[in-house]
Amino acid sequence: MTTTASAPGADPRPANKPLNSRGRVITASLVGTTIEFYDFYAYATAAALVFPVLFFPTGNDTTALLASFGVFGAAMVARPVGAVVFGHFGDKFGRKGTLVASLLTMGIATFIIGLLPTHNEIGAWAAFLLLLCRLAQGFALGGEWSGAALVATENAPEGKRALYGTFPQLGAPIGFIIANALFLAINFGLPGEDGAASEAFLAWGWRIPFLFSAVMVIVGLWVRLKLVESDAFQKAETKGEIKKVPVGYVFQKYWKQLLLGTFIMLATYVLFYLMTSFTLSFGTTPTDAATPGLGFARTDFVLMQIIGVVFFGIFTLISGPLADSIGRRRLLIWVTSAIIVFGLTYTVFLTPQDSDMFTGALVQAFLVFGFLLMGLSFGPMGALLPELFPTNVRYTGSAVAYNVSSILGAALAPIIAVWLWSLGDGNPWLVGVYLAGAAVLTLVAVILSKETKDARMDVE
Question: What predicted TM-score, i.e. pTM, was given to this entire model?
Answer without folding.
Answer: 0.82
